[in-house]
Amino acid sequence: MTKIAFVFPGQGAQKVGMGKTAHDAFDASRDIFRAADDALGEDLSRLCFEGPDEALRLTANTQPALLTTSIALLAALDEKPDVTAGHSLGEYSAHVCAGTLGFDDAVRIVRARGRYMQEAVPVDEGAMAAVMGLGADVVEEICAATDGIVEPVNYNCPGQVVIAGSARAVAAAGPALVAAGGKVIPLPVSAPFHSSLMRPAEERLEPHLRDTRMADPAVPVFVNVDATSVQTADAARTALIRQVSRPVRWQASVERMIADGVGLFVEIGPGRVLTGLIGRVARDSRRVNVQGPEDLESARAAIASARAEG
């Protein structure tokens, strides 16, 4: 049986105008944006559609905005996956898709998550950088040998590992990474996400997740922190708590989904970041992307084809 995975992007995929065409075309999408506005008590929809970009890029805004756009597109698609996953923030979209979390609860939690992550490290004291062209083991060794806190935090695909930590330590690791044959690209982010410096954010977020009603996922959700699927509410909650200050194991998650029988990946949300990463993990994998109404027909055709193979 060919399985279908719905995957959801994380922070960095946002752009002004996201979700607007779906909002205008589909009642189901419009209902999601309206629910987000009501849950947060503000006009998040306007921020998604009109910006300004500087406000949309603020972590506390980016996270609920991306979640809302992804779920609005999911509502427009009106299809069900066999398994699901998300990159970092996208794991919350995956849990809404799987029925683990209600949308209203999820959008409020990720608003708090974004605020806590931003406040965990003073602005300009943390940094992240993408390291291209090196194996994960080399990146790990160089980070371990560098003074200060600098850690691999996103294992995205072969030859791409993101590091994060104190700004000074991330900068200090750069020359050794380049000397080893890598390319280091500083990322325009406001905090060292998924590093151990995020522990204060994890501790602040945990009570929100403990107090939120969660259900057993209707389909397996492959989680970032362990690259394994969770199928109970308790396991899902624990993974979301641990995720804040631990690495995103995206490459391993994709590999395990394929081993589990996934033959089609449907990325739902703005951009094509995950589509590209999955292609680098498994060149022969089938991948489609849903960013707006114009993508729905091809996505549904791919899903129907995969179902027919089963």
Q: What report would you give on this structure?
A:
The protein has 310 residues and is α/β, with parallel strands linked by helices. It contains 14 helices and 10 strands. The protein is globular, with a radius of gyration of 19 Å. The chain starts with a strand and ends with a helix. The mean pLDDT is 97.
Tell me the number of helical segments per DSSP (H or I, 4 or more residues long): 14
* Total number of beta strands: 10
Largest sheet: 6 strands, mixed
Structural class by secondary-structure content = alpha/beta
Poorly predicted runs:
none
Query: Mean pLDDT, rounded to whole units?
Result: 97
Fraction of residues in H or I helices: 40-55%
Shape: globular
SSE arrangement:
Blueprint (H helix, E strand, L loop, with lengths): L2 E6 L11 H6 L1 H14 L3 H7 L2 H4 L2 H19 L5 E4 L3 H9 L4 H18 L5 E7 L3 H9 L5 E8 L2 E7 H13 L3 E4 L12 H13 L9 E2 L6 E2 L2 H11 L6 H10 L2 E7 L4 H9 L4 E5 L5 H14 L1
Parallel strand pairs: 1-2, 1-9, 2-7, 9-10
Antiparallel strand pairs: 3-5, 3-6, 4-5, 7-8
Helix pairs in contact: 2-5, 2-7, 3-5, 5-6, 5-7, 7-10, 8-9, 10-11
Which labels suit this protein?
single chain; 310 residues; alpha/beta; six-stranded mixed β-sheet; four-stranded antiparallel β-sheet; 14 helices; 10 strands; 50% helix; globular
What's this, in brief?
The protein is α/β, with parallel strands linked by helices and 310 residues long. Helix content is 50%, strand content 17%.
